[in-house]
Amino acid sequence: MNPRMTLKIYPRPDTFYRGKSSLNFDAIRSKIMLDRSSQGGIYLWVAHVLCGCLVAVLTFLLISSEDRLTIFRAKLV
Predict the structure, then answer these.
(1) What's the pLDDT tens digit per position in 18-49?
(2) Rounded to two decimals, what is the model's pTM?
(3) Which end of the chain offers a freer environment for a tag, N or C, measured as fewer CB atoms within 10 Å?
(4) Alpha-carbon span 12 to 14, nearest angstrom
(5) Can the peptide bond before residue 11 be classed as cis, meaning omega within 30 degrees of 0?
(6) Which residues have a Cβ under 8 Å from the Cβ of 1 and sit 6 or more positions away?
(7) HEC per residue, the chain
(8) How far apart are CA 29 and CA 35, in angstroms?
(9) Where are the domains of the chain?
(10) What tens digit of pLDDT does each residue of 46-77 get?
(11) How far is residue 37's CA from residue 30's CA, in Å, rounded to a whole number?
């Protein structure tokens, strides 16, 4: 069958596409979400807080260095 002509004919003469189906990507019903344990509650929160603080400190350092380099460049020019 010519694929260029298939799009111009409605309804399509081939029905091969009807036999296909997509995978179930529903996150709530997936095996990983159903079988997960609820252990490590406080450790998980501590890890999130530490990661957040680390990102905040790195962001502050980057912004500060950018401001200082901008001022240095302005004085140099």
Answers:
(1) 777 776 667 667 777 777 776 767 888 999 99
(2) 0.49
(3) C
(4) 6
(5) yes
(6) 13, 14
(7) CCHHHHCCCCCCCCCHHHHCCCCCCCCCCCHHHHCCCCCCHHHHHHHHHHHHHHHHHHHHHHHHHHHHHHHHHHHHC
(8) 10
(9) 38-77
(10) 999 999 999 999 999 999 999 999 999 999 88
(11) 14
